Backbone:
């Protein structure tokens, strides 16, 4: 499934990878814990944005595909997956 | 939409109402902040369980209804609602 | 420990109690699941604000008290409590 | 501030970096959205464990240092930082 915003997502993810590497360096250099914790929170917020984009892509592609197909079993699977994801997210 | 587990849900909710009343009393009696905060966390966990039950009811009734109906626009509405809920939940 | 903002807190809490009662009524009247879930999210947000006020009260009273007292064991207890709360909050 | 568990933390972080790279690859290969979202949730859980370790390190080192020093202003700063972190974490 190709989200329309694939380049944007890849860009975000490579920045997150850099942020994680930055945190590793901060720990290695014994930087102040609160600064490290603040950076970890920034990465979690950045991941939340990626999740958000993925959810929209999922809705526009996979779920729309299941609706258009009219395949009721596939629609049930898609609905269950979303509910499970919601459960785990909390 | 009537969840199969309506009595259970009503029971949980009336217990939560009692817990909130308990927290009000704790604040009124100037109880120790950390104890109040611990109780607030308990209420939030109890609300998460109610959410979980509601989501399962929603899946079993409303979404299943939209799937069985074959009404694609209704299915799209249901899917968008779930994604929005997921967005807000985080 | 009496927070300076006790009346405000009591007011917020009694509104939350009313909101929970409203949710009970919604479930009892078989209202649409997504509307119930949206109300639950509103209560959780309102509880987060109460937590926020309690934390500020805790900082201003209990923790400040421990600092002024100079009692190191008491300070250690207070610090551990906060960390534990942070752990559970996530 | 050097946490006692620095090697463990660095190890965890380099694994998280690998996980993020894995997610980038999944997006690049157009893997199924739900699988990507599940991986993102795994990274967030792994980051939560790092946070947990950092908080314990912070308690054991920085906060303990402020307590032992008896410097009340420093203790106030440390307490405020923790509360702010708690606020942002929710």
Residues:
């Amino acid at each position: 499934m190709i989200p329309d915003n694939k380049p944007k997502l890849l860009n975000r993810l490579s920045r997150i990878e850099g942020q994680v590497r930055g945190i590793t360096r901060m720990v290695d250099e014994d930087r102040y814990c609160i600064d490290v914790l603040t950076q970890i929170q920034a990465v979690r917020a950045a991941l939340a944005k990626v999740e958000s984009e993925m959810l929209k892509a999922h809705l526009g592609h996979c779920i729309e595909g299941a609706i258009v197909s009219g395949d009721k079993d596939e629609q049930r699977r898609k609905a269950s997956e979303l509910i499970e994801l919601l459960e785990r997210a909390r």
Q: What stands out?
A: Chains B and D do not touch (no CB pair under 8 Å). The mean pLDDT of chain B is 90. The radius of gyration of chain B is 18 Å. The helical segments of chain B are 6-28, 33-69, 72-89.
